[in-house]
Design a protein that fits this description.
Order of helices and strands of chain A: EEHEEEHHHEEH
Structural class of chain A: alpha+beta
Strand content of chain A: 15-25%
Helix content of chain B: 40-55%
Largest interface: A-B, 61 and 79 residues
Largest sheet of chain B: 6 strands, antiparallel
Strand content of chain B: 5-15%
Number of strands of chain B: 15
Strand order of the largest sheet of chain A: 2-1-5-4-3
Radius of gyration of chain A: 17 Å
Distance between the termini of chain A: 34 Å
Number of strands of chain A: 7
Oligomer: heterodimer
Structural class of chain B: alpha+beta
Radius of gyration of chain B: 40 Å
Distance between the termini of chain B: 89 Å
Mean pLDDT of chain A: 74
Shape of chain A: globular
Largest sheet of chain A: 5 strands, antiparallel
Chain lengths: 205, 1259
């Protein structure tokens, strides 16, 4: 089980939090602070696992994190999850967020490197990132690991939102243009190791 | 109205959306809180508007603020409003907000039930999806109870997207509403074989989570998971399953044996590190579970260790970390294999990554030996000095102590060194483990007699320098060691050089700042020291010095008498008065030393911490019996109003029970224990201590330690452990030299006196300890009971999910779903939803549990024929109601108005549960790699109900039903054939992969086609095969049998016999007997005579078959053999019962002594080259079957495995139970098959070849 997903930046500012177990808001903030404290003092070339201990859960729980340029992605998981699997899952999530965002709307910030995620995406579109994440992890359990499937579902839902006119006057274009992307350009040397990720080949809808 | 709308939309133009809010917050860095509070005010305004879009926007912003730590629960109702919007956009926002801030305490959550139900049944799959996702985060017990049925329906939704979410959320539902587990489980199990990989993965996920907490209930799913493991290509699923197997193997070692082979293959073949790592982990778990039983897995251990070494050597820190983690698991059972990688692990101690250092520390525990302990600890001490951060330093400290004290100080050769290490550790700043060090000091000083003098000297020094330690006053701080120091100095004060000085040190005014419990020990031990001083001086007739000491005590003790700590105060005042009295006596020149010493006389023996708990209750003593009859309840009640101490009275009075049942007693005992534990005045009985002192031999009888003072040790000042290291090396060198000398001169007598130990090859274990040490073992009471303190957390939510699902799985009537286990039906709803498309669904939902229960009833009645008609009618009625057959697939076989035979098979007799259980047994006990075993298993459990039900689970199974309705025999064989066909196909596939997996026909058949996912390349399907051949048959009973070698025991074969009742009567009291030959004997239970029959452990109702297994011991296996036997049984029909018997001949072929064993081609080649094998050959003419059929037949009927196959040529291998190798080279050309064979036993080979010939002549 995944107990929590925390995304915060290099200064500990939360960018997305998702607890799969109830904590009051002040407790959530404390957990974020402590996690940030633990994670931020680690070098980039040390291992990505931390025994969280007293933080959430107890000895059965581990913090598994990845550090991208300005963001930390931290998953708090118990022993039923594979450590390397979760590391890959983080990577997959980041790639999906990139695939969904780095189109049209943020052309100016398009990061060539798909290994990194743009913090601005998260800052301004926390809700969208939540929706993406919901297709990957549900109720603390991994729902889907197939990138094609996830991207397709996210896109279908966004289309639906679009057909309803979106939330505000400014149309929610953000996630809609996945299929317009020049997919072959996505670097294929992504070091994801063992998940069978085929870079999405979106069928025309 | 229109104006209002216009106004609303104009307002909206000025509303901030989420992006504006974020931008605003970023622009107000200085007064963020203020800005946000104005934003919240705006949001509150927005929420008051009618426009749902505005509300949704506001809720969206609230979700963001919630992330920043603002409590938004006040908007819960608005969130519910947004959730119930008909637009997906808003609904999604609402559910997101709800999932972020709703929890069990949110009261509006109960308003959502109907909304969620509506969304769940929405025609738009994304509405349903969003509702499921949201629900997964805030499901409460009420929601779970009310919605369980709806979600269960969704598990069979047509869209995989919904199915996978519904399956996954079931876990949350189970947690909150455990009653739903049993009714939902069959469908969940079904989803393991869903055609959609996502759904399958979700089901695996859920079952793995369930099984992790209560593994034993899921053991029966092992065959199904095994199949998934060998067929799935999804690494996520594989990882989950492999992890699950890791949890299951400790419960069932045979499962482990089965797993080793496929896991090893995966380890070799996979390129995914995560999968590799989990495989290694599970192999380790298997090896741990097997470690007691079979030690023959050194190859697997080597493989694991070797793979882990690769991980540890990897530059990726993550792999390094995991490698070390897994290594520590191996360490527990196979320390030797890990020790060979010591270099690597020591290297990791210097890693810059703390996590890795910690893991390496864990491993060190198993790395030490007598030889290197000092060296390793020295290294750790260096780390202690360098370490920054107290956590790591404390970790190091505990590890040092762990390593040194492990297995009763096994590796310590020099306890002086250890004491000095402990003393050095006291100098650590800010450690929290003072207590740990103290207990080690006490332990060593008490148990290692030889060290006492040294320990006392060191402790005296510590006491003298106490000021160095008292800086850290927090509890568990280092000052705890003073507790130990004071006690050791006092208790063993006869070893003190200058007790006066120590006494003085213990009575310094500064001591009063120590924690109370330490002061108390100081005071008490000061008295002990005082006694020692007195005795010393009296001997020397130096009354002046003794009186000075008394004076010192009289002066200093008042300080402690004033202590705030009760214990200190009490002891101090007591001792002060004593000393004053002694002082008086001293002034009269009375000799008191003797009497004072007597106060503290006697040796304290170490007592094991658990000793008291383990004292057995003496026979005849009933701890629960009342000593005095308690006053009767009525009395006390009568007096209650009058009595002054009424309260106390009632507390002690208990109603008198003349008859009390066990449970009640246990409950009371518990309550009393509780009461006693809470009662400070209750003196707990301590029979142990009495016993110990009575029975303990006197001090003189404890083996006295010989101190070898060959190395004089006098370390001035604080000891340095390093010096010991040097000295130790010198000593060892010297010893070695001496030994050499000894060997040369062969003058044993001279040296024999000096050294106690024998000379031998200089190995690690032979390093002599510096002191000959007897470690006094801790005392335990006699007849101590082994205690198993298995305490589970009573608050664990998973406890409620500990539900036996096996009975359910087998679908038998032995424990069907009870009426209470039905999922609640929405009967309270007056009118169901009326959208036309949903009609069917909605109606079928409440239908479901009813059907289920009627099935139960029906099954219960099955035995009685008279009820059958009625139930059939019921069924027919129900059929009309049935809207969607797949909705309740488990019903299918029962729904069919089938003939009696069929029904009988479904409604199995009580014995079938044992069949189910023995089924798993069978799956497990068969040879791990035998393709034959699969087939063998196939016909055996056919009568068990599960295949029927699971078969029916496939939606298309309805089409199959008519076939099943054919006359029994035909049906049976057809049915089997179908299965076997499928199995054969699978087998082919597997053989190709060179993996000989096993699979279980039983749970698997249902979704066979779906699971294979088209991955299968089809070769021409094989005809059905069975190894079961007819044993004997008459009008009542039919017996078929198969013989299998027993892998574990080279002299045993297992004969599996399936008994099938062909009559209309009940068969019982079956007795199976065989006339033993010299070579083969039926194994009978102990005490049975050589001609007694074995009772078949079941009875057979009409039409039912079941399997029993008999073990035979054989001596020579080179010749086939026939044994005569008889089955006697009683036929019981309604009006009569008759004795019947049936004779048979058991044919032990040579093939039955062969066990399918895999062999790698290189090993095979080596075997052939060795030249130890005799050869023979065989030609078969006119065989016209495809080559792969031919091979499959040989594999199947003769227990061979294919080593290599090239075109029309294949090499095969098998092994007999006694270890003979049998190698075949099979070639085919133009309907001619030539088999060249080699074996180290020619007669065995000849017979096997004859049997192969026989096999092919039959077809």
């Amino acid at each position: 089980m995944i107990k929590a997903i925390l995304i915060f930046n290099n200064h500990g500012k939360p960018r997305l939090i998702r607890f799969y177990q109830y904590f009051a808001e002040d407790m959530q903030q404390q957990i974020i602070r402590e996690t940030f404290h633990l994670v931020s003092k680690r070098d980039d070339n040390v291992c990505n696992f931390l025994e969280g201990g007293s933080l959430i859960g107890g000895s059965d729980y581990k913090l598994i994190y990845r550090h991208y340029a300005t963001l930390y992605f931290v998953f708090c998981v118990d022993s039923s999850e594979s450590e390397l699997g979760i590391l890959d899952l983080i990577q997959v999530s980041v790639i999906i967020v990139n695939v969904c965002f780095h189109v049209q709307v943020f052309v100016e910030t398009l990061d060539k490197c798909f290994e990194n995620v743009c913090e601005l995406d998260l800052i301004f579109h926390m809700d969208k990132v939540h929706y993406i994440l919901q297709e990957v992890v549900m109720g603390g359990m991994v729902l889907e690991t197939n990138m094609n499937e996830i991207v397709a579902q996210v896109e279908l839902q966004n289309r639906m939102e679009k057909s309803e006119g979106g939330l505000s006057a400014a149309p929610a274009r953000a996630v809609s243009a996945v299929k317009n992307m020049n997919l072959p350009e996505i670097p294929r040397n992504i070091n994801i190791g063992d998940i069978n990720i085929k870079v999405p080949s979106l069928s025309p809808f | 109205m229109a104006l209002k709308i216009v106004k609303g939309s104009i307002d909206r133009m000025f509303d901030k959306n989420l992006q504006d809010l974020v931008r605003g917050i970023r622009n107000h860095k200085e007064d963020e809180a203020k800005y946000i509070s104005t934003c919240i005010d705006e949001i509150k305004q927005e929420l008051k508007q009618d426009n749902i879009a505005v509300k949704a926007n506001a809720v969206c912003k609230l979700t963001y603020l919630q992330m920043l730590g603002y409590d938004v629960s006040w908007a819960a109702f608005n969130i519910v409003e947004v959730m119930s919007s008909s637009k997906f956009t808003y609904k999604r926002i609402g559910y997101l907000a709800a999932s972020q801030c709703f929890h069990e305490g949110t009261d509006v959550i109960m308003l959502t039930t109907n909304q969620i139900r509506k969304d769940l049944s929405s025609p738009n799959q994304y509405d349903t999806g969003v509702a499921l996702t949201g629900l997964s985060c805030f499901v409460t017990p009420d929601l779970a109870r009310d919605l369980a049925n709806d979600i269960m329906t969704l598990m069979s939704h047509t869209k995989p997207y919904i199915r996978k979410k519904a399956v996954l959320i079931m876990y949350k539902v189970f947690l909150k509403y455990p009653e739903s587990l049993r009714p939902a489980f069959p469908r969940l199990k079904e989803k393991l074989e869903d055609p959609d990989p996502g759904v399958q993965s979700a089901a695996v996920n859920v079952i793995c989570e369930l099984a992790r907490r209560n593994p034993k209930n899921y053991l029966s799913l092992a065959p199904l998971f095994f199949k998934l493991m060998t067929s799935s290509t999804n690494n996520w699923v594989l990882i989950k399953i492999i992890k699950l197997f890791g949890a299951l193997t400790p419960l069932e070692p045979r499962l482990g044996k089965k797993l080793i082979e496929p896991l090893t293959n995966l380890i070799h073949s996979t390129s995914a590190m995560s999968l590799l790592y989990e495989c290694v982990n599970t192999v380790i778990a298997v090896l741990i579970s097997l470690s007691s039983g079979m030690p023959n897995h050194s190859a697997s251990i080597q493989l694991c260790v070797q793979k882990l070494r690769i991980l540890i050597e990897d530059s990726d820190q993550n792999l390094k970390y995991l490698g070390l983690l897994a290594m520590s698991k191996i360490l527990k059972t196979h320390p030797k294999s890990v020790q060979s990688h010591k270099d690597l692990i020591l290297q990791c101690l210097d890693d810059k990554d703390e996590s890795i250092r910690l893991r390496a520390l864990d491993l060190l525990y198993g790395m030490v030996s007598k030889k290197n302990l000092m060296e390793i600890v020295k290294k750790l001490m260096l780390h202690v000095d360098k370490a920054e951060g107290t956590t790591y330093r404390d970790e190091l400290l505990t590890k040092i102590i762990d390593i040194c004290s492990q297995s009763n100080y096994q590796y310590i050769t020099n306890f002086e060194w250890y004491i000095s290490i402990l003393v050095e550790l006291t100098r650590l700043e800010g450690t929290r483990h003072g207590h740990l060090i103290a207990s080690q000091m006490l332990d060593v000083a008490i148990r290692v007699k030889a060290i006492r003098a040294f320990a006392v000297a060191q402790m005296a020094m510590l006491l003298d320098n106490a000021h160095l330690l008292t800086g850290n006053m927090q509890r568990n701080g280092i000052c705890e060691v003073l507790y130990a120091a004071a006690w050791i100095c006092g208790e063993f004060s006869e070893h003190l050089e200058d007790p006066n000085q120590t006494l003085e040190a213990m009575l310094r005014p500064k001591v009063a700042t120590l924690p109370g419990h330490i002061q108390a020990v100081y005071v008490q031990n000061a008295a002990k020291l005082f006694a020692t001083v007195l005795r010393k001086h009296e001997g020397a007739t130096d009354s002046q010095a003794a009186q000075e000491t008394s004076q010192l005590l009289v002066e200093r003790l008042p300080l402690f008498v004033q202590s705030a700590n009760l214990e200190v105060q009490e002891r101090a005042s007591c001792i002060l008065q004593l000393v004053k009295y002694i002082q008086k006596l001293q002034q009269k020149d009375v000799e008191v030393a003797e009497e004072v010493s007597a106060l503290f006389a006697g040796e304290l023996n170490p007592v094991a911490p658990k000793a008291q708990k383990k004292v057995p209750v003496p026979e005849g003593l009933d701890l629960d019996a009342w000593i005095n009859e308690p006053p009767s309840e009525s009395e006390s009640e009568d007096e209650k109003p009058k009595a002054v101490f009424a309260k106390e009275e009632t507390k002690h009075s208990r109603p008198r029970h003349t008859e009390v049942d066990e449970k009640e007693l246990a409950r009371r005992r518990e309550a009393r224990k509780q009461e006693q534990a809470n009662n400070p005045f209750y003196i707990k009985s301590s029979p142990s201590s009495q016993k110990v002192y009575q029975d303990a031999p006197g001090v003189e009888h404890i083996p006295v330690v010989q101190i070898d003072l060959s190395v004089p040790l006098k370390v001035p000042g604080m000891p340095m452990s390093d010096q010991y290291l040097k000295l130790e090396e010198e000593r060892r060198q010297k010893e070695k030299a001496e030994k050499k000398k000894k060997e040369k001169k062969k003058k044993r007598e001279k040296h024999g006196k000096g050294k106690k130990h024998d000379s031998g090859p200089e190995s690690e274990e032979d390093i002599t300890p510096a002191h000959h040490v007897d470690i006094v073992t801790e005392e335990m009471p006699e007849n101590a009971l082994p205690s198993d303190d298995d305490d589970k957390d009573p608050n664990d939510p998973h406890k409620a999910l500990d539900i036996d699902l096996d009975n359910l799985l087998s679908g038998t009537n032995c424990r069907p779903l009870a009426d209470t286990e039905k999922l609640p039906v929405r009967t309270h709803r007056s009118e169901p939803l009326k959208s036309p498309g949903e009609d069917g669904d909605v109606e079928s939902v409440p239908q479901e549990p009813k059907k289920r229960s009627s099935k139960e009833k029906k099954e219960k009645k099955k035995d009685k024929d008279k009820d059958r008609k009625k139930s059939k009618e019921e069924k027919k009625k129900k059929k009309k109601h049935k809207h969607d057959a797949e909705d309740e697939p488990a019903e299918l076989p029962a729904e069919e108005p089938v003939k009696s035979e069929e029904t009988n098979e479904v409604a199995t007799p009580p014995t079938s549960t044992s069949a189910e259980a023995s089924d798993l047994d069978f799956w497990l006990s068969s040879t791990p790699v035998a393709p034959t075993a699969k087939e063998v298993a196939a016909p055996a459990p056919a009568p068990a109900p599960a295949p029927e039900t699971s078969l029916a689970a496939a939606p298309d199974s309805e089409a199959d039903e008519p076939k099943d309705a054919e006359p029994e025999e035909v049906k049976c064989s057809k049915h089997k054939k179908k299965k076997q066909k499928k199995e054969k196909e699978k087998e082919e596939k597997k053989e190709k992969k060179k993996k000989r997996h096993h699979h279980h026909h039983h749970h698997s058949d249902g979704g066979e086609d779906s699971v294979q996912n088209g991955t299968m390349e089809e070769e021409e399907p094989l005809p059905p095969m069975s190894n079961y051949c007819l044993l004997a048959e008459n009008s009542y009973i039919k017996m078929v049998y198969d013989i299998q070698g027993n892998l574990q025991d080279g002299s045993q074969v297992v004969v599996s016999v399936i008994f099938e009742n062909k009559s209309d009567s009940f068969l019982k009291s079956m007795e199976f007997n065989v006339l033993d030959s010299l070579n083969s004997k039926l194994q009978r239970p102990e005490g049975a005579g050589p001609h007694d029959g074995l009772v078949v452990p079941f009875q057979l109702p009409p039409g039912v078959s079941n399997e029993a297994r008999f073990i035979f011991s054989v001596q020579s296996i080179v010749m086939p053999q026939k044994l005569k036997g008889t089955l006697t049984f009683i036929v019981k029909s309604e009006d009569s019962s008759t004795h019947e018997k049936l004779d048979f001949k058991l044919h032990f072929t040579c093939t039955s002594y062969l066990i399918t064993t895999p062999c790698y081609s290189d090993a095979y080649a080596k075997l052939l080259e060795s030249g130890d094998l005799k050869s023979s050959s065989l030609r078969l003419e006119g065989v016209n079957m495809p080559f792969h059929h031919l091979l499959a037949r040989i594999c199947f009927h003769h227990h061979f495995s294919v080593v290599e196959r090239i075109d029309s040529c294949a090499s095969m291998y098998s092994r007999s139970i006694q270890g003979h190798h049998v190698c075949l080279l099979v070639k085919t050309a133009d309907q001619t098959v030539s088999i060249d064979a080699k074996c180290d036993e020619p007669s065995l080979l000849g017979n096997v070849l004859d049997e192969i010939k026989q096999t092919f002549s039959q077809c």
